[in-house]
Structure formats: structure tokens, C-alpha cells
Specification:
Helix content: 25-40%
Distance between the termini: 74 Å
Shape: globular
Number of helices: 5
Structural class: mainly alpha
Oligomer: single chain
Order of helices and strands: HHHHH
Number of domains: 1
């Protein structure tokens, strides 16, 4: 009985640690989970276009290059590793966002439209909830984007 009483706290700690590890979100992998979303839904506007090498990507934000994406675009930094709720990239996937104060001197003081941008004459259609959840989890987990991740080109 004394042995059981002494080992019970240890058992409780082991079970609590195991439950905590099990409850955490699965690790999001940039190359497997995020790069395909960017390629399918973002790079056309937020990547370099080899046909027009002197044109800037939309909002001067590139999502085809790690360093450029982490730097941000015209509205400032859009990916804040560890904080999806304050990351403009994640916020825009959920609807329009008020223009940041430092970008207010730009052409318009209207809200930044949601992404991905609606096709001309069509209503905005958000990414599937699963993809938005992956991007949120990726950012919350630190937005790990390996240097060795394959770079994808904009559609030519």
C-alpha cells in the first residue's frame, strides 16, 4: 500500500504529460501542408512572374520566397511566427481587415480586401476551412519555413 501511495504522484505526472502531448495540434510541415496551398491559391498574385520580371507582386508581398514573405509587403509584416491572430496573412483569410495605420497614406483608406482575391464580377470565396486552419496552426507553431523548401514559380 505504501508503494502505491509513493508511486501514485509519479503515475499522475506521467499520464498528465502524455495527455498534454496527445492534445497538442499535429506538427504542420511547410513543404507538405503550406507550400501547396500557397502555390494553388496565392503565388499567382504574390509571386514573381517570369513573363513580367519588372512587375511587383500584389501589395509587394511575395509568398514564393521565405525571406521575402517574412519581410512582408506594402502593409508591413504579414506573418508573425507564433501569433496567427495578429498575422495579417491569417486575418485576411477570414475577411476584410482595416488598413494598418502606417499604410493609410496609400492609394485608399478602404479595408484590405480578403484573400484570396475574388475573381472579377464574382463574390469572394474563402479558402476551405481546413486550409485556413493549417495556415493558422503553421503560424502558431512558429511559421517554420525551411531554407531548403522548394521554390515554386508563378504560373507562366
Amino acid at each position: 500500500m505504501k508503494t502505491l501511495i509513493r508511486t501514485l504522484p509519479v503515475l499522475v505526472l506521467v499520464l498528465a504529460a502524455a495527455a498534454s502531448a496527445y492534445a497538442q495540434e499535429p506538427k504542420v510541415d511547410f513543404s507538405r501542408d503550406i507550400a501547396p496551398i500557397f502555390q494553388q491559391s496565392c503565388i499567382k498574385c504574390h509571386g514573381l512572374d517570369s513573363r513580367h520580371p519588372h512587375h511587383h507582386p500584389a501589395a509587394r508581398l511575395r509568398l514564393d520566397d521565405r525571406a521575402a514573405a517574412m519581410k512582408g509587403g506594402r502593409s508591413g509584416k504579414v506573418i508573425i511566427p507564433g501569433d496567427a491572430k495578429d498575422s495579417l496573412l491569417y486575418r485576411l483569410l477570414n475577411g476584410p481587415v482595416p488598413r494598418p495605420a502606417k499604410a493609410a497614406g496609400l492609394k485608399s483608406d478602404k479595408d484590405i480586401p480578403p484573400m484570396p482575391k475574388a475573381k472579377r464580377g464574382k463574390k469572394w470565396k474563402p479558402l476551405p476551412k481546413k486550409e485556413i486552419a493549417l495556415i493558422k496552426a503553421w503560424i502558431d507553431q512558429g511559421a517554420v519555413w525551411p531554407e531548403s523548401a522548394p521554390k515554386k514559380k508563378a504560373a507562366n
